[in-house]
């Protein structure tokens, strides 16, 4: 590969890392062409971008970014494919679904919600991870719940009080 071509690939990787919030480092080497095509179709359906890279070029691209990705460098051995997504758990769910029939893609590492997950043992954790927006929505729902209970109690209390007063009024007559 020419030096100019390497520079272009490094720029493409850098652009993808900046464009997507999350990425997964995987190994899909043992897939045949039919299985790879199937994985690519599944990725496209789930808005996950699959990009096969050379480890040295990926490392060079990551070193040129502001975030310190050095904890991922030990996983850059063998064949490497990147899965980019804007939903933190989309690629993890795809990997788990695809692994039902095969042992591939193998998760090497992931950068999700500004955290590093190194090793395949984190796949289940990544599947259940919530995005920042989902967490904010959960907090808002929790904060609204007591207020709704108070309003509901006040409304039902008013109805009960009205019923008691009406009953007392009827007894006096």
Q: What is the string of SSEs from the N terminus onward? A: HEHEHEHEEHH
Tell me the distance between the termini.
Answer: 101 Å
The proportion of strand residues reads: 15-25%
Poorly predicted residue ranges: none
Q: What would the average pLDDT be, to the nearest integer?
A: 86
Class computed from helices, strands and strand pairing: alpha+beta
CATH superfamily of the largest domain: Ribosomal protein L10, N-terminal RNA-binding domain
Percent helix range? 40-55%
The coarse silhouette is elongated
CATH class categorisation of the largest domain: Alpha Beta
**The biggest beta sheet, please?**
5 strands, antiparallel
Record field, number of beta strands? 5
> What is the C-alpha radius of gyration, as a whole number of Å?
26 Å
Q: What order do the strands of the largest sheet run in, or round the barrel if closed? A: 2-3-1-4-5
CATH topological fold name of the largest domain: Alpha-Beta Plaits
Number of helices: 6
**Total of domains:** 2
Oligomer kind? single chain
């Amino acid at each position: 590969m020419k030096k100019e071509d390497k520079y272009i690939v490094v720029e493409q990787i850098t652009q993808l890392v900046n464009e997507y919030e999350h990425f997964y480092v995987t190994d899909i080497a043992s897939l045949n062409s039919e299985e790879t095509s199937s994985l690519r179709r599944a990725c496209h359906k789930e808005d996950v971008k699959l990009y096969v890279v050379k480890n040295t070029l990926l490392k060079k691209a990551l070193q040129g970014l502001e975030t310190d990705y050095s904890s991922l460098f030990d996983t850059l051995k063998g064949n490497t494919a990147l899965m980019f997504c804007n939903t933190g758990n989309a690629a993890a769910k795809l990997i788990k679904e695809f692994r039902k029939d095969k042992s591939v893609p193998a998760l090497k590492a992931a950068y999700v919600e500004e955290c590093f997950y190194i090793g395949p043992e984190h796949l289940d954790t990544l599947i259940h991870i919530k995005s920042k927006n989902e967490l904010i929505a959960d907090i808002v729902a929790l904060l609204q719940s007591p207020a709704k209970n108070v309003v509901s109690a006040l409304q039902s209390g008013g109805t009960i009080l009205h019923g008691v007063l009406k009953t007392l009024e009827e007894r006096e007559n």
